[in-house]
Amino acid sequence: MLRVREIAVSYGRVPAVHDVGLTLESGAIHAVVGANGAGKSTLLRAVAGLNRIARGAIELDGRPIHGLPAHARVPLGLSLVPEGRHLFPRLTVERNLQLGAFTRRDAAEVAETMAQVVEIFPILEQRRTQLAGTLSGGEQQMVAIARGLMSRPRLLLLDEPSWGIAPMLVAKIFETIQQINARGVSILLVEQNVKRALSIAHRATVIQTGRVVAEGTAAELLQSDLVRQAYLGM
Amino acid sequence: MTAQLLLQTLLSGILIGLVYALVAVGLTLIFGVMDIVNFAHGEFLMLGMYAAFWGFALWKLDPLFTLPLTALLLFALGAALYRLIIRRITDAPMLSQIFATFGLMILFRGLAQYLWKPDFRSVGESVVAGKVAFAGLQFGLPQVVAALGAVLTTAAVWWFLRSTRLGAALEATAADKEAAALMGIDAQKMFALAWGLGAACAGVAGALLSTYYPIFPEVGSTFILVAFVLVALGGFGSVAGAFWAGILVGVVEVVGGFLWDPAYKMVLVLSLYLLVVWLRPQGLLGKA
After folding, report:
1. Interface residue of B182, B188, B239, B285 to substitute, partner A, most A CBs within 10 Å
2. Mean pLDDT of chain B
3. Within an 8 Å CB–CB cutoff, is residue A80 touching chain B?
4. Predicted structure pTM score
């Protein structure tokens, strides 16, 4: 469904990603793992349209999308939950969720999606009228993922969903990601927590200093010396 | 001096303050959404006045009847200016942005002088001429109607921001442009919308003022200074802040001018401004 063909992204004159490619099959959870600063987020932001690519191509369902601005990629079925969540802190949870459905016009259908995300995250029902900025880190992450689902994406891009949330909630978030995937949403997951990411992913790409150093099924990578030594400390 | 006289000046201050507020709401809207200070904002007000004036001079249409048209005209002008000029300087250094909008200010003043002469003009025999009196107090009907129109327009903008899908998108863009883009919101459209709305607010204020205020090419300069004070006083980007600051400044200006000397009214306004930014740099309702 998503094909990233040897893209390069630079911040000013500093290259962040070189010739990175990956293929995500429809219905899969694909993890991109690696150390802090390896270029994982840059890759995800390029797919979402927040970073321009200097070379290569990004294709969704075989169509190139790298020429489109970020906002024009949302109606194609792509949604990014950004690192650090980037909620609208002074707006209520409900308003944040409604903004997630900005590209959709049918109010009845949006209400239906709203009911579905509340089913996934029951806590949102109680937090509905609260300002998003007043929630705990874990709750904010739930709102961010829920907001990302409001556009009814076919491909959800998750950037460090475990960032800044209490350890006991991390397991819950990853469980939810699997739940969302089970509903038919493909997932591209960027995570520093390699073990957790590989435990739910079907396939994964390992990135080091902006380059792909390994690719394979999650099971293969968990067994590989590279991953065991560099990321799992074994 | 009687209490009644003081009440009279207090209410007069609120009446003009409400018009000031509307001008400032437009300015703070543009600033809030895209961090650009529009020095040509007073000229939007001036153009609104002339639109009302020519509607009356050419077709005997009252400024109040042509008000929706004036709003539409200024909205189109604001959005077009964004598309043609401002869009190119959104990422430019602050000085370029200042010069661009400052240049527009000079251009519009020059054009108005060239096309319509520097003379003072006025709309004679408006439908809102005359006085209203109640409880021993007396106000000019044009002032009352202008204040009423201004408060209704401000309320409409407030409602738009709070209760509509586009208003929410505008607020989202103001808060976090990247996050807004991830919602599928086109920032370019929102910026054009902010400029259109901002210009329309100033234009409506101009049309409302045209029934009792002299119309001339530099008229914007009087109002832009107050509008800047209100935007800073209320908190940059805060519509509610600009509204309350407008009332406060209107009262300080009129009551202060009455108790002291009208010639010093701006001294009072600017002293109030200095006092507030000294005690609360983010403004009355601004984010810290």
Report:
1. B182
2. 92
3. yes
4. 0.91
Q: Which residues of B touch A103 (CB under 8 A)?
A: 183-184
| A:16-55 residues touching chain B, CB 8 A cutoff | 48-50
Q: Which domains are present in chain B?
A: 9-279 (1.10.3470)
Question: Each residue of B96-132: pLDDT tens digit?
Answer: 999 999 999 999 999 999 999 999 998 877 677 788 8
Neighbours of A24 (CB within 10 A): 22
Q: Name the residue range of residue A120's domain.
A: 2-230
pLDDT at A81: 97
Contact residues on chain B for A143, CB-CB shorter than 8 A: none
Residue numbers of B between 138 and 167 with CB closer than 8 Å to A: 165
Which CATH number covers residue A30?
A: 3.40.50.300
Does A86 contact B at CB distance below 8 Å? yes
Per-residue pLDDT of chain A (234 residues; tens, 9 = 90+): 999 999 999 887 777 899 999 999 999 999 999 888 888 999 999 999 999 999 999 999 999 999 999 999 999 999 999 999 999 999 999 999 999 999 999 999 999 999 999 999 999 999 999 999 999 999 999 999 999 999 999 999 999 999 888 888 899 999 999 999 999 999 999 998 888 999 999 999 999 999 999 999 999 998 988 888 877 776
Q: In A, which residues are within 8 Å of B161 by CB distance?
A: none
Chain A contact for B182 (CB, 8 A cutoff): yes
The complex scores an ipTM of 0.94
**Residue A99 carries which DSSP code?**
H
In this structure, what are the phi and psi dihedrals at residue B122, rounded to the nearest 5 degrees? -150, 160
B151 pLDDT tier (thresholds 50, 70, 90) = very high
Tally of domains within chain A: 1
Looking at the complex, does the CB of residue A76 fall below 8 Å from at least one CB of chain B? no
SS (H, E, C) chain B: CCHHHHHHHHHHHHHHHHHHHHHHHHHHHHHHHHCCCCCCHHHHHHHHHHHHHHHHHHHCCCCCCCHHHHHHHHHHHHHHHHHHCHHHHCCCCHHHHHHHHHHHHHHHHHHHHHHHCCCCECCCCCCCCCEEEECCEEEEHHHHHHHHHHHHHHHHHHHHHHHCHHHHHHHHHHHCHHHHHHCCCCHHHHHHHHHHHHHHHHHHHHHHHCCCCCECCCHHHHHHHHHHHHHHHHCCCCHHHHHHHHHHHHHHHHHHHHHCCHHHHHHHHHHHHHHHHHHCCCCCCCCC
Q: Which two tokens stand for residue B99?
A: 């010069």
In chain B, the residue whose alpha carbon lies closest to the alpha carbon of A100 is B183
Q: Could you say which of A86, A87, A151 has the minimum Cβ distance to residue B184?
A: A151
